[in-house]
Amino acid sequence: MDAGMTGWLAMLDDHWGWLVFAALLAMGEVVIPGVFLIWVALAAAVTGLVALAFPISVPLQLLLFAGLCLLSVWGGRRWYTANPVDSQDPLLNDRAARLVGEVVTVVEPIDNGRGRVKVGDGVWSCRGPDAPMGARVRVTGAEGSVLTVEPA
């Protein structure tokens, strides 16, 4: 083994290495929140505590850490699925849904239920009752990027 790898293994052989690793991962979660590193930090902390309580070899510590990582990330995902975080703006990433209620202008006549409307500085496809170019219509819904409209 090279000197760098021997240094890492020596650090992991001591329970303090795992605990320091756990603290660094927890700090990483605070700096770059993604709700992922905290679960890996938990696995590292438990591995460090087990290494403190029982004299286990480095390969066994690594195996324990890998298993705990899988278990803690799986448990964290289940917990967040069961306890979703409420958003202050649930339509933040759903631009079409945010347009419901807006009055827009028809730029390509709605013929046989299909046409195009101007929304802000863009043009969107739409479905709705026939309307001539220049008519004002209200957005009532959206299916993907196609707006549903009705006469305003």
TrEMBL record:
Specify where it is mainly localized: membrane
Q: Which Pfam families match?
A: NfeD
Q: Where in the cell is it found?
A: Membrane
Q: Which residues cross the membrane?
A: 16-42, 49-74
Its GO biological process terms? proteolysis
Q: How does it sit in the membrane?
A: Multi-pass membrane protein
Q: Name one GO cellular component term.
A: plasma membrane
The NfeD-like C-terminal domain covers which part of the protein? 97-151
Which PANTHER family does the UniProt entry name for this protein?
A: INNER MEMBRANE PROTEIN YBBJ
Protein name in the entry? Putative modifier of protease activity
Q: Which organism is it from?
A: Sphingobium indicum (strain DSM 16413 / CCM 7287 / MTCC 6362 / UT26 / NBRC 101211 / UT26S) (Sphingobium japonicum)
